[in-house]
Design goal:
231 residues, 8 helices, 7 strands, alpha+beta, 7-stranded mixed β-sheet, globular, single chain
Length: 231
């Protein structure tokens, strides 16, 4: 019997909005493009869509901050989450360099000097409603975000974090997070294996994973047909 997840065509789309707020020209906040949106699933006839998930992401525009003489650390320091990423990505001994990122990121970029492209796509959150899990809809949505929001970025980063460890609000109730077992480390390992199917690799000594997207994103159909993608 053919598995419905093994086809080469995507079942989902992203309805993405960009958060716009008043900022002073060329300040730290203006160097971050914030996106959020719903993950939508087509019906069998491709005539209607329903919301099955939610995604949040940001593009850190390091290139523009450098042109405006704004230190990279000041841009990341606009939120605790981004500052954590800065500490994971930029070792203390390299913070005065033009390409300050860690050796792991340096090697991941597959470039001796990827200075032409330093922007970073951060995936903050990706959630799928319970009845739609296990069908790779989340990976499809992630791939769409990488392909569209990641243009002009050299890497994307994500922190695999079990949603059941952060429960609040009505949407979280719909996610049925209380039904998950409580072993955070076990679920974190499962999430890492899940994101690895798109090519994300763990960054040693940190809780984050990263993916080289500076040379483009692997087409979805190639992911589906690869041995790495297989469960």
């Amino acid at each position: 019997m053919e598995n419905e997840n093994d086809h080469e065509y995507m079942d989902v789309t992203l309805r993405i909005s960009q958060t716009l707020s008043q900022v002073y020209p060329d300040d730290e906040e203006s160097m971050i493009s914030k996106y959020h949106g719903d993950i939508m699933l087509w019906n069998k006839n491709m005539t209607k869509q329903k919301k099955i998930g939610y995604l949040e992401a940001s593009v850190i525009e390091i290139e523009r901050s450098m042109n405006c003489d704004i230190p990279m650390v000041d841009v990341f320091d606009t939120s605790q989450e981004l500052m954590d990423y800065y500490c994971y990505l930029v070792p203390k001994g390299r913070r005065n360099l033009y390409f300050p990122f860690s050796k792991a990121i340096y090697g991941l970029a597959n470039e001796k000097d990827p200075s032409y492209n330093l922007n970073i796509l951060v995936i903050h959150m990706l959630q799928i409603l319970p009845r739609y899990r296990g069908k790779d809809y989340g990976l499809q949505a992630m791939h769409l975000a990488l392909d569209h929001l990641g243009r002009g970025c050299f890497i994307s980063v994500i922190t695999p974090f079990p949603l059941q460890c952060n429960k609040e609000g009505n949407w979280e109730k719909r996610m049925e997070l209380d039904l998950f077992p409580g072993e955070e480390r076990i679920w974190t390992r499962k999430l890492k294996r899940h994101y690895a199917r798109l090519g994300f690799v763990p960054i040693k000594g940190t809780p984050i994973m990263a993916l080289d997207i500076g040379h483009g994103v692997t087409p979805w159909e190639k992911h589906v047909n690869s041995s790495v993608f297989a469960r």
